[in-house]
Design goal:
The complex is a heterodimer of chains A (53) and B (157). Chain A is of the alpha+beta class. Chain A has one domain. In chain A, strands 1-2 form a two-stranded antiparallel sheet. In chain A, strand 1 and strand 2 form a beta hairpin. The longest helix of chain A is centred in the middle third of the chain and has 10 residues. About 9% of the residues of chain A have low confidence. Chain B is elongated. Classes of the chains: A alpha+beta (53), B alpha+beta (157). Chains A and B meet through strand 2, helix 1, strand 3 and helix 2 of A and strand 1, helix 1, helix 2 and strand 8 of B. Strand 2 of chain A pairs antiparallel with strand 1 of chain B, so a sheet runs across the interface.
Chain lengths: 53, 157
């Protein structure tokens, strides 16, 4: 499977995922990889108004 | 998804290789964890939500409890999960002026999301009801009842 990775600084990478249903599986795999500190997921269309509590 | 890593332990290439090896079909078809949350639909904003949507209160409850939600991400407070899957007819704005204190267990909606306030806290979402289920328990593992990928259904009681 080919996925798109965009470097984010020197110690992080943004991963463009195939679809919403793949977010959790990819995050789980990422967290299992040696050296990974965190996998932060979220919806692409987030705004401060929609995510305010 | 943002992946942060320790450059002394791995590399961009290793992460790419790891993610490209995901057996996606197997992982996305497995059963997700599911939580049913019993709800008393007596929220102080139920009437206003009905007015905003042009529905009666019973129909608001029917549509809210008739959807299956999925936790997309967590934030704001420990145990607070942003639930995707809200019926589009229930997409309503936040309160113009947030409340200083929303009771713990409040079942709420705002914009395209639904959620439950795990603890008493400030908040601006529209309150539909309440649940007695604990959303955050430091003695549990994990402490958060709702984690990304968990499916949720609200059950009127």
């Amino acid at each position: 499977m080919t996925i798109r990775l965009l470097p984010y600084g020197q110690d992080a990478v943004l991963v463009e995922l195939p679809g919403p249903s793949t977010v959790v599986p990819f995050a789980e795999v990422a967290l299992e990889l040696p050296g990974v500190l965190e996998a932060v997921t979220g919806r692409r269309r987030c705004s401060s108004s929609s995510t305010a509590h | 998804m943002l992946v942060e890593f320790d450059r002394s332990l791995t590399s961009m290439a290793a992460i790419r290789a790891g993610l490209e090896s995901v057996a996606l079909t197997e992982r996305t078809t497995r059963a997700a964890r599911h939580v049913d949350l019993p709800v008393v639909y007596d929220g102080v904003d139920l009437r206003d939500v009905a007015a905003l949507t042009g529905l009666d209160e019973d129909e608001v409850v029917r549509r809210h409890s008739g959807s299956e939600f999925i936790v997309r991400f967590c934030g704001f407070a420990p145990g607070f999960a942003y639930l995707d899957g809200l019926d589009p007819s229930l997409h309503v704005p936040r309160q113009a002026t947030p409340r200083a204190a929303v009771p713990a267990g409040s079942v709420a909606i705002a914009g395209e999301f639904a959620g439950v306030y795990p603890r008493r806290s400030p908040g601006g979402w529209q309150l539909l009801g309440r649940t007695e289920v604990a959303l955050w328990d430091v003695a549990a593992s994990p402490p958060a009842l709702l984690t990304p990928g968990t499916t949720v259904r609200f059950v009127p009681t």
